[in-house]
């Protein structure tokens, strides 16, 4: 027992074990400390920044084992209780310790303990920094008006004429947009609106009008605009800068330099920034006066964190809105089937924008079956003609292929050697290094573990010096296009190009200025760029998404095809989309040809319902990695055995999905058999997984609450992790 005068604090730390850690505070420290304060504490042989969650006068630890606080970061902002409440929800939903959610939500600069001599205040330095938007300084092309122009005085954006007062020459909303905005404005409390409109239907304008209206209510309100990616859409930041010229805007994404990100974060936390625009991590930022949330491209996979705490920022944005009692708008041309179903069931409110703002025919979809065709560089004769036609008319063409690199694998035709990755169950991809003068250098790169090696001079197995690239990636496709269209100005965009700061933007800007005739690249080209002169889009290979082991593959394929198709014909001229596929009769293409998301989505939902797949059931995945596959599978087997008695009575564990329990009984939880992951070996570790599922989200979470402590007691040389609502299985 401790004496009554002792003071202890409970601290959250970024460690995967335990929940709260006790430290001793001196009476002086305790007098000033409150939950939400920041401290530096000793942890093993190092120091860590922690967040105070409670002050107590007792501790369960032996008193002599409780260590003292090293420092109180007294000019750090005290984080609000409702933020801890929200993060507590996130932590319990994903079944992780609160500290493991809360600390990574702070910018890296602020969660590392200040160096002994760099005492001065990092916080006050950050507060003095001017917040710069990405691309600030060099005005984005087409940005109307200058920042700091006319004072903003928005009236009711639903009334005609008031829009003229918005800076950056905001257009007057059309009838469909006004209808959507009226619906959103009609519900001041928590409500999820699904703004469903094809690319170019004016969703962004609806967001901006809504956010401006909310901001105009008082001088404190904050609004959050979430986007899948910022670096690639300078048009968006340019637009925001012009439209919200008199507001402080905080931009939050992980590519910002540390100090800049910390300065933006601090401005959001302290309420100085009123418009917060960011990627998935933005949802975990404390925003004291948050009144509205927009999640743009809500279906986008990048809202799902794929390491650490695997949260869905889209789902957590909805949870945050619900806790705050504020509206949230999810926008997409191809909503996730989860959101689509919620709208059909009336849980979300659908706000449709049926037509493009600038009327004009949709691109005509042509399906080209490459079977028995004279393919050149992966392109069928019809495909080559389509590109040729666009170029001859002085219009632009875009060739889309979702595989970067030169070729997906290198082989020796003499002995059959393949460029397998020694760490992973996959192949290393042949890449050409950007060569500045001199001959190009080729490397073999594993896209999964990042291991890289020079291309061997000769086959490592038989010594043959003729090694052959198999298949093609964007680099090789670009070479082919240069050969086929020697007069065309060609630019490529993929993650390899984008690795160099500013390079992606350069390609996009050049395309806008009309300095590029032919764009080739990956999904990066599909995102939100409005190319006015583009009249031909080619999808080189659409088939990997049609018949995949992953039941979400068609949903993703449809979304990306809609998105690339949406790049064409935006100026209203005739245009076409050419899809090369061996399955031209697949119904997905019929819906795509009509640009009919609803019929595609409804057909998918019918299939999902019939086979009891999400969103009709809820899933979690126990992932295990070990040095040997048997070790991982054995651990999962024991975890499954430990879980079986916890499944609701009547649940035939392993008996297949959708097995009904007794009427009135809690929905059963089904545990499937442990299996190796689709890519079993990654970075030298063997990986296996066990899927569990239930028709009731509540039952699934209750089961996890009971099960996870039992897994924690199991012995085994493994690392394990639970993932809730996995999107890749
Ligand atoms: P989305 O976000 O659905 O792709 P945007 O909001 O970006 O669509 O609108 C597409 C284009 O149409 C943009 O260039 C935008 O400025 C323009 N636009 C949107 N709404 C209107 C409107 N009501 N009147 C005129 N132009 C508009
Ligand atoms: Zn060989
Ligand atoms: Zn690898």
Task: List its salient traits.
729 residues; alpha/beta; six-stranded parallel sheet; 21% strand
Measure the end-to-end span.
49 Å
Strand coverage percent: 15-25%
For the secondary structure, the number of strands is 28
Strand line-up of the largest beta sheet: 8-9-7-10-11-6-12
Low-confidence stretches: 136-167, 649-663
Radius of gyration: 27 Å
Description:
The protein has 729 residues and is of the alpha/beta class. The strands form six sheets. The protein has a seven-stranded parallel sheet, sandwiched between helices. Helix 5 (122-128) crosses helix 9, helix 6 crosses helix 7 and helix 19 packs across helix 20 (697-713). The model is unreliable at 136-167 and 649-663 (pLDDT under 50). One zinc ion (ZN) binds at residues 412, 414-415, 417, 459, 461-462, 464.
Chain-wise SSE layout:
Elements: E1 7-12, E2 21-25, H1 27-32, E3 38-43, E4 46-56, E5 71-72, H2 81-93, H3 98-102, H4 108-111, H5 122-128, H6 175-186, E6 191-197, H7 203-215, E7 222-226, H8 234-243, E8 249-252, H9 258-269, E9 275-278, E10 290-295, H10 313-324, E11 327-332, H11 337-344, E12 349-353, E13 364-368, H12 381-392, E14 396-400, E15 409-412, E16 429-433, E17 441-445, E18 452-454, E19 467-470, H13 474-484, E20 490-493, H14 495-498, H15 503-512, E21 518-521, E22 534-539, H16 553-565, E23 576-580, H17 587-593, H18 597-610, E24 618-626, H19 629-643, E25 669-671, E26 675-682, E27 685-694, H20 697-713, E28 718-724
Parallel strand pairs: 6-11, 6-12, 7-9, 7-10, 8-9, 10-11, 13-23, 14-21, 14-22, 20-21, 22-23
Antiparallel strand pairs: 1-2, 1-4, 3-4, 3-5, 15-19, 16-17, 17-18, 24-27, 24-28, 25-27, 26-27
The structure holds adenosine-5'-diphosphate (ADP) and zinc ion (2 copies).
